[in-house]
Amino acid sequence: MRLIIKQDYDALSRWTANHIIEKIKGSNQPVVLGLPTGSSPLRVYKHLIESYNNQQVSFANVVTFNMDEYVNLPEDHPQSYHSFMWNNFFSHIDIKPENVHILNGNAPDLIAECKSYEQRIIESGGIDLFLGGVGVDGHIAFNEPGSSLTSRTRLKTLTTETRVINSRFFGNDLSNVPTQALTVGVATVMDAKEVVVIANGANKARALAQAVEGGVSQMWTISALQMHQNGIIVCDEEATSELRVGTYRYFKDIEIDA
């Protein structure tokens, strides 16, 4: 696993965006991306949009699969992940709508929807690069503490902590936050050829320390990245506050040109 330490949120976002651009431009085949929502990737999306506007990259041959979606929240709701992705990224680039895949949290059969999603990923040739963020409790996607490391796309009940954190997007009213979501599993993410996780801010420091220095555990699902042959965490200086000094210096040394 690589740990890329950048000065601040903008620097880590720019590095991540450039890494994705290199992946797209370096392939003769359609590139399949796994994408997250939330605050962590917003600056990455901004830099990708800027690069598209500057004619540095095209997304015409990019296929995407999003990590998750709320259950029983209309797709056109301002806080649905459909709305998030189109408002913050897809509507600003040249991606083909038929190449965008987002879980349907309003499907009549949610279990069938999850199985279909896994099948669509397989039919696409698998995820080339899965981008993700990490929660303060170390979760990736909605794979919260206790989630199986062999889990696949499924229906999940959200913890109160996650709902409280996300309530800031719902007028700080917990009653408006959905209690369930559809999410890709840990194994779904780990099946990607490459996984890049963003960890920014002091509130992610404990999760980063567990991901890098702790053991692999279902209580910190981000720790599964230790077992991925092409796993990368990109963080800012604030997120490194709970790393051992030796660990910090080691990764700064070996990634000096990153």
Structure description:
With 258 residues, the chain is α/β, with parallel strands linked by helices. It has one domain: Rossmann fold (3-Layer(aba) Sandwich). 32% of the residues lie in helices and 17% in strands. It is built from eight helices and ten strands. The strands form two sheets. Strands 1-10-9-6-2-3-5 form a seven-stranded parallel β-sheet, with helices on both faces. Helix 7 links the parallel strand 9 and strand 10. Helix 1 crosses helix 2.
Low-pLDDT stretches are: none
| Average pLDDT number | 97
Strands ordered across the widest β-sheet: 1-10-9-6-2-3-5
Number of domains: 1
User: In CATH terms, what is the architecture?
Assistant: 3-Layer(aba) Sandwich
Compute the number of helices: 8
**Strand fraction band?**
15-25%
Order of helix and strand elements from N to C terminus: EHEHEEHEHEEHEHEHEH
Major sheet summary line: 7 strands, parallel
Q: How much helicity do the residues have?
A: 25-40%
CATH domain fold name: Rossmann fold
Spatial extent as radius of gyration: 17 Å
Distance between the termini: 14 Å
Backbone structural class: alpha/beta
